[in-house]
Amino acid sequence: MATLVEEALSYVAKYLNEIIQLPIDMNCMNSVLIKRLAAKVSLNDLNELQDKKDKLTSKLYMKKLECLFEEEHNMLHRCVNCSSLYTSN
Fold first, then answer.
1. What is the pLDDT of residues 41-58, one digit of tens each?
2. SS3 for 59?
3. Quick one: which H or E segment has residue 45?
4. What is the DSSP code string of 69-86?
5. Could you tell me the pLDDT band of residue 26, with boundaries at 50, 70 and 90?
6. For residues 71 and 89, what is the distance between their CA atoms, to the nearest angstrom?
């Protein structure tokens, strides 16, 4: 079953722009599947995605950000003096 899910996610990632154009409801995907899909989609592909009804794009961006912030060196900090945001790097 896990290999079937992995194969389906790879297919969706490869043909995401065409799948988004179909008249289907994408809300059936849970957050774990969206996170796994976001890991397979590059930021360039995500930027080129034409999702007029925002079926999936905002969720994919959110999961991409979550994955970035899971790493310690990417954590955001705020300066107490000037309120600027910065990372540890």
1. 998 988 888 888 888 899
2. helix
3. helix 43-48
4. HTSGGG-EEE-TTT--EE
5. confident
6. 12
